[in-house]
Amino acid sequence: MFIIFIFTPQTCFANAAEAIDVASTPSISLSAVNKNSQIKVNGENLDFDFIESDNFLHDTIPSGQVTASYEMENPTDEQLNIKMAFPFIGTLDDLKSTFIKEGDEGVSYSADLSDATKRIQNGVSPEDYSQLDIDNILKNTDISDNYKLRCFSEDTQGTLYTLTVKPMFKSSKRRNYFGFYIPLYKGENIIFLDQYSFRGHGDGVFFVDGSDFNDTEFDLSFFITNTNSSITIGEYDGDKFHNNQENYDCVIKTENMDFGSLLRSYYDNLKEGLGTSLPDDNMYNLYKQYIDTHVYSYDNYSYNISNLLQAPFLNNVIVLFYSIEFPPHSVKNVTVSYKTKGGDDETMTRTPVYTFTYLLNPARYWKDFKNLTITIKPPKKAPYIIDSSLPFIKTGNYYTAQSQTLPDKDLYFKLFIHSQISSRDNRTIFDDPEIGGLLYFLIGIAILIVIVIIAVIIRKIYGIKKGERSNL
Question: pTM of the prediction?
Answer without folding.
Answer: 0.71
